[in-house]
Specification:
Distance between the termini of chain B: 10 Å
Strand order of the largest sheet of chain A: 3-2-4-9-1-10-13-12-11
Largest sheet of chain A: 9 strands, mixed
Strand content of chain A: 15-25%
Radius of gyration of chain A: 22 Å
Strand order of the largest sheet of chain B: 3-2-4-9-1-10-13-12-11
Shape of chain A: globular
Radius of gyration of chain B: 21 Å
Largest sheet of chain B: 9 strands, mixed
Helix content of chain A: 25-40%
Strand content of chain B: 15-25%
Order of helices and strands of chain B: EHEHEHEEHEHEEHHHEHEHEHHHEE
Number of strands of chain B: 13
Shape of chain B: globular
Oligomer: heterodimer
Distance between the termini of chain A: 21 Å
Structural class of chain B: alpha+beta
Chain lengths: ~450, ~400
């Protein structure tokens, strides 16, 4: 624990509205991120020369924008001398980017940096894998095509990157399957999941309509606010839509053939005491959907921020990154939060516990996943998640989930909540990631 | 020497595979998994007290991301028995990714965020796919095979060689910067062009000599289906390289050709880092220590000069002179870069890229930074030298330099 660690602050944050499909589709990831970074410079009157580092989380590192952090930052007017790299750690990419920027500050490598996140899932494409060897030219492909479509598809396999992006290669499971396994292992019922998703939507609609998030939004693609909660507002009047939604895994799905599923994942499932059969819990209404969006935070060492005339908003007082069993990857926040409180990174975080948190933000991959975290945390560590404090503005279930950008939304939400509730002092943000990782941060309102 | 110094316990790499060569059937995760497994087995063999379960931080550099799948280091971790590693992520900083991974790992160790960090990079362009953007095709059901030639584009080109910020191939920039520099120095372009080709030949000669003498033996670990020799150097006719001009990539290209540019290649390279105190406790004998690093940035179109800028920054930061370094590894984006760096930094070529560079060996984008650092550390050990400098430029205009020191004894 170094003294420098006591002086980590966040001086500002912005994000685009989140959406999926037509509204933001025209803005590829480097454009989305560029919009946020350009406004960040403008709104907070940053001198680009003072920015030492930019780290951007992005899960599908867009082929048309390799190292998206560098491309977007140059387009947004950041300096050529500023180093920029892109991080991929699945849905924790944004947080891991923040961790590396904190690291640069702690090690004296940087005084002021930007942590960002972006994803344009409407632009996740398709790819063809050449089974016979790569790098053949287009002419060769054309020749093969002339030989006939059937033969062509023998040589190439086609992958939908959106589907692939939501799959964990580590244990060969789709995230939807993980959500079902978690519901079963941690005892989440369909009713609980639906009720949670409904409440989440109601909270999001209230926040968007009440203009609660506007302070940290920058419009993009003609979109001024998050449109997904509003598009689904009418569902609030008819909660049966949630309970009547068909499960993602119907009776014919291979997944529900638990024997085959259990055989495929025997080793990892045995350790969890997972035995079928299971009753499906996951529907498209209690899962988050893909999204498009970007966000960014100004991260600094306190003295440097003050010297530059920036106004610190949050202190970063503890954090943790942990690994968990990939088959129940969504349980990551339960362990990460535990580590962040029991192994505090700064003196300010010593003795703090969950009950002191005024604002709690958790990324919900699925209602079943979030509820599993609440239940397991209570059972294993006696740590209660006060639902009056958790995702008060709604969460990923309501806003969509642009993989690399969601972590940034958790922080802008905290800032919005702090603006709304001047008495709030402590906040926590946490998220899970495919492959089995959890990350958590503890923040304190900045006061000199 | 401080007990908190970050030391490199061991560093290894796979062979550098040519396009469609011995590594073509391995995915990035399989290639990385095999190399990481060998690295960890070697360390476990050298000290009973070390177990790979002690690794809690894994940063993997990667350039061509298309088709690699979720979080590459997690996939590699599973393949190499690292089960539930706490922190694992990909860093993409183009050709500097592998070196940035080393810096991030060192940083985590210095801050006490990690006790053993596995760092490096993987590139497997042979497995890189062709792509179709979703805006051109909403559902695969709608795909008409006849439309494919028009809609497809190559991931390896876009992910690694294309400068998005300017919308051109990086070689276009390289030609321009070279011409500009040659004009500024008042050099004869023809003579300079010949010098580039001569350097490319030197690089091949050195790479072949190193392979023949077994100089890479310590650093290369076997991977399934491939031999133990780097595949590329032997494939070129060296005499022809200098006698003929080679094929330019650009219509008016005067300097750069297929002879003096690095081919894209497959490779994985990893280093195991820890603090000196931990190494001593476990009886590990590190190869060297990470002394310092520096970063720099230029305009994207001037990226060819970025490693030079980073090296200058490092010399200033560490208050050293270029003569203080016994060996230098300078990643060569294109042949002319080496000559520019040589002139600008005053490099003694007998100390630089003594085993050849990526023009001869091949350029595995995301693994390159780790590969040259690995080669540098082993070369220091073999030659009994002490101080090493590794430097690289990155597409997009940044540059990184890293100073290492061989451990005298422990």
């Amino acid at each position: 624990m170094s003294d420098r660690g006591e002086n980590l602050v966040i001086c500002g944050a912005l994000r685009t509205p989140f959406s999926f499909g037509n509204r933001l589709k025209a803005l590829r990831s480097e454009v989305l991120l560029g919009v946020v970074l350009a406004e960040l410079l403008k709104k907070y009157r940053l001198d680009p020369k003072t920015i030492d580092m930019i780290a951007a989380g992005s899960v599908q590192q867009d082929t048309k924008a390799p190292n998206v952090a560098r491309i977007a930052s140059l387009q947004a007017g950041f300096g050529q001398e500023t180093n920029a790299y892109s991080i991929q750690a699945n849905c924790n990419s944004g947080f891991v980017g923040l961790l590396t920027v904190l690291g640069h500050i702690l090690s004296g490598d940087a005084g002021l940096g930007v942590a960002a996140g972006v994803e344009s899932m409407s632009n996740f494409g398709f790819r063809l894998n050449d089974k016979t060897g790569m790098c053949s030219g287009k002419a060769e492909i054309e020749d093969k095509l002339k030989a006939g479509a059937a033969g062509f598809l023998d040589e190439f396999s086609v992958v939908d990157c959106l589907e692939e992006g939501l799959k964990d290669q580590v244990n060969d499971m789709a995230m939807l399957e993980v959500a079902e396994v978690m519901a079963h292992v941690y005892g989440v019922t369909r009713q609980e999941a639906d009720a949670y998703a409904l409440q989440n939507l109601a909270r999001a609609v209230r926040a968007v309509e009440g203009n609660r998030l506007a302070g940290y939004l920058v419009g993009a693609g003609g979109l001024a606010q998050d449109n997904y909660p509003l598009n689904r507002k009418r569902m609030l009047a008819n909660p049966a839509l949630f309970s009547k939604a068909p499960p993602v895994f119907g009776p014919d799905s291979e997944f529900l053939n638990t024997e085959r599923f259990a055989q495929k994942h025997k080793k990892s499932l045995d350790s969890l005491g997972f035995h079928g059969p299971i009753t499906p819990t996951v529907t498209m209404y209690n899962s988050c959907i893909p999204g498009d969006g970007a966000g960014a935070l100004i991260v600094a060492e306190e003295e440097r921020a003050l010297e530059l005339g920036l106004v610190p908003r949050l202190r970063v007082i503890s954090w943790a990154s942990v690994g968990v069993n990939p088959v129940v990857m969504g349980i990551g926040p339960c362990e990460a939060v535990h580590a962040a409180f029991t192994r505090p990174k700064t003196r300010r975080a010593q003795g703090l516990e969950m009950d002191r948190m005024d604002v709690i933000e958790i990324h919900e991959a699925f209602a079943s996943q979030a509820l599993s975290v609440f239940k397991e945390s209570e059972k294993k560590y006696r740590r209660a998640w006060n639902q009056e404090k958790v995702n008060v503005y709604g969460g990923s279930l309501a806003y969509t989930h642009p993989l690399g950008a969601t972590n940034m939304r958790l922080v802008t939400d905290i800032l919005s909540r702090f603006d709304e509730d001047p008495a709030a002092r402590y906040a926590m943000a946490c998220g899970c990631a495919g492959g089995g990782q959890g990350t958590a941060f503890v923040f304190e309102r900045y006061e000199r | 020497m401080s007990p908190d110094d970050v030391v490199v316990v061991e560093a290894v790499r796979s062979i550098i595979g040519s396009s469609h060569g011995g590594l073509k059937d391995l995915s990035a995760a399989q290639l990385g998994g095999a190399v990481a497994d060998h690295l960890l087995a070697r360390v476990e063999k050298s000290s009973q007290a070390f177990s790979r379960s002690a690794i809690d931080y894994f940063v993997c550099g990667m350039g061509i991301g298309a088709g690699v799948g979720q979080n590459l280091p997690r996939q590699i971790a599973q393949q190499s028995g690292l089960a539930e590693i706490a922190t694992a992520f990909v860093v993409n900083e183009m050709c500097g990714s592998g070196m940035e991974a080393i810096i991030l790992g060192s940083q985590a160790l210095k801050l006490g965020e990690s006790s053993f960090a596995l760092v490096g990079g993987v590139e497997a362009p042979d497995g890189s796919p062709w792509l179709i953007t979703r805006s051109q095709l909403i559902d695969f059901k709608d795909l008409r095979v006849a439309d494919l030639p028009e809609k497809l584009f190559r991931a390896d080109v876009y992910d690694s060689l294309w400068d998005k910020t300017c919308g051109v191939h990086t070689i276009v920039h390289a030609e321009k910067i070279t011409a500009e520099w040659v004009a500024r120095k008042g050099l004869d372009p023809e003579v300079f062009k010949r010098k580039i080709d001569e350097y490319a030949k030197l690089s091949h000669d050195r790479a072949l000599a190193a392979a023949a003498a077994g100089d890479f033996q310590e650093e290369i670990v076997p991977v399934p289906g491939a031999g133990l020799q780097d595949e590329l150097p032997a494939k070129k006719n060296l005499e022809l390289m200098v006698r003929r001009r080679g094929t330019s990539y650009t219509p008016d290209g005067r300097f750069l050709s297929n002879h003096n540019s690095p081919p894209l290649a497959d490779c994985a390279s990893f280093l195991l880092l820890t603090r000196r105190r931990t190494a001593e406790q476990l009886g590990l004998k590190p190869l060297g220590r990470i002394v310092s690093h520096a970063r720099a940035g230029t305009a994207p179109e001037r990226y060819l000069l970025a490693s030079l800028a980073a090296a200058r920054e490092l010399l200033q930061k560490t208050k050293t002179r270029i003569e203080d370094y016994d060996l230098v590894e300078s990643n060569t984006a294109f042949g002319s870069q080496m000559l520019i760096n040589q002139a600008e930094l005053g490099l003694d070529m007998s100390k630089v890229n003594i085993h050849g560079d990526c023009i001869a060996l091949g350029h595995p984008i995301g693994a390159a930074g780790a590969r040259i650092t690995t080669t540098l550390l082993h070369a220091l050990k073999r030659t009994g030298k002490k101080r090493g400098l590794a430097m690289t430029c990155l597409g997009g205009g940044n540059g990184i330099a890293l100073a290492v020191e061989r451990e005298e004894k422990i």
